[in-house]
# Entry
Amino acid sequence: MFTVFILIATTFSLFLIAFIISILFRHRQKQEIFRRDLELQQAEAERRMLKIRLEIQEQTFRHIAREIHDNIGLGLTLAKLNLNTLSPENPLHDHEKVQAALALVSQAIDDLRDISRSLNADVIAEQGLIKALEKEVRKLKKLDLYSVNYTISGEPVFLDPQEELIILRIAQEALNNVIRHAHARTIDVSLAYGEQALLMQVTDDGNGFRPGQEQENSSSGLLNMRNRAELLNGCCTILEAPSGGTTVQLIIPY
# Structure
């Protein structure tokens, strides 16, 4: 009887040990699967972030090319035309042309300096997002094509310069879309500092935004704005404005 009891106890112990080993083995397998899934997710996230950075870089290069072609290139071309039409027979008129050419070259140098400064976070570190956006608004007002309003509400929260630079880039892209596509008359730019997040809105009274337009016109920059917002764990949404135009709404948590 005692031998039978020992045999049963031993069998039960072996079964219990095998059961525990089985549980530990399965747990280890699950941990390994979880680790591999996590590594795959991290690798996918890194690939996605790299793709976003490359898209942003490409968009920035296109923006620089447009600025150089439209502003600096035009100014230098006009300066060259002025200098090419100089005539020894009319020195007074030549003096005026030289002065005009010098003014155009000086403006081209200033524009080039502005482009150079806008490529890094120095403009944000020195001025902050509020001042940098104010500068963009002043540029629009100088065109005399739009009625531009700029409002700030709440207690300003100063973010990391690199983060504020990304927000500025989103605002610039939104304003660029208005200029290129909207045929608007009025542009409203607002910064609202809440307790937990920053709300930025760029609203126009132009052609408006219809569903599916982003897919049809990928060059509009809407995808770039959303990708940039994701870099800050934020959300960029394109809405129909009450005026019938478009509102680009950006929410960035602190």
Q: What stands out?
A: The helical segments are 2-84, 91-118, 122-142, 161-182, 213-216, 222-231. Strands lie at 147-154, 186-193, 197-204, 235-240, 246-253. The chain has six helices and five strands. The CA atoms of residues 130 and 191 lie 8 Å apart.
